[in-house]
Amino acid sequence: MIDRSGFVQVGRSAQGRLIAASAVMALLACVVEPAAHATPSIKVLSEVAYDGPIKYTVKMASKNWGSAQETRTIRSGQTDDFSWQSKPAGGSQNVPDACPDVDSIRNASGTTVRQVKIRFAAVVANSGDADVQLSFQGHAPRPATAVTVSGKKLQCPTDNFFSQLVHFTMPTGGAEKNVTLSDGTKLTISASRK
Where are the alpha helices (DSSP H) in the chain? Predict the structure, then answer.
């Protein structure tokens, strides 16, 4: 017979209650025991050494786009975007708001700029080498030409646009990798794991 406490009553004797309590404890031990031997937790991949933060530097030397350098940090498998702006060759000039297709060569104050956009993505292999994909986009104003917009004649610069995607493998121990784009722009990239 089972009473309200959940223990089996085998009579009123203390020995009977002790035997019943022991049986319940043995049953609980069988049920609880498998939980103690559960599968160990899975280690998060981001804790693996080759998957940690990557500090990388991109240096640019270009006749068309100028010189610049940027150092940033990402993780393996991430993509990072950044841009550089500088005065164009021949200096900045004001650009009328009505000029078409000038967003990439005009800054917030309305003057022309030379702009480079970089997208950097790296995946680090078990060997420690990084498989890198780098997208390069350059925008620079060409001299203004006469354009008619809504019946008005304006002097508007046009966008001298260049784009190239490069793919390469490089070490992540700090050594430099040199890449020359098809327009002659030289990029020097280095990467090290933090």
Answer: 14-36
- Average pLDDT (140-146) is 92
Work out how many domains the chain is built from and give that number. 2
Predicted TM-score (pTM) of the model is 0.70
**Phi/psi at 37 (nearest 5 deg)?**
-110, 30
d(CA 174, CA 49): 16
Phi first, then psi: give them for residue 116, nearest 5 degrees: -120, 135
Please enumerate, as own/partner, the contacts of 32-36 that have beta carbons within 8 Å and a separation of 24 or more: none
Closest CA to 145 of 161, 124, 160, 129: 160
Same domain, 31 and 81: no
Instruction: Select the highest-mean-pLDDT range: 31-35, 92-96, 112-116.
Output: 112-116
Residue 34 and residue 53 in one domain: no
Find the domain containing 91 and state its range. 46-193
In the numeric block, the tokens 């010189």 are attached to 67
| pLDDT score of 44 more than 50 | no
Please tell me whether residues 116 and 177 are part of one structural domain.
Answer: yes
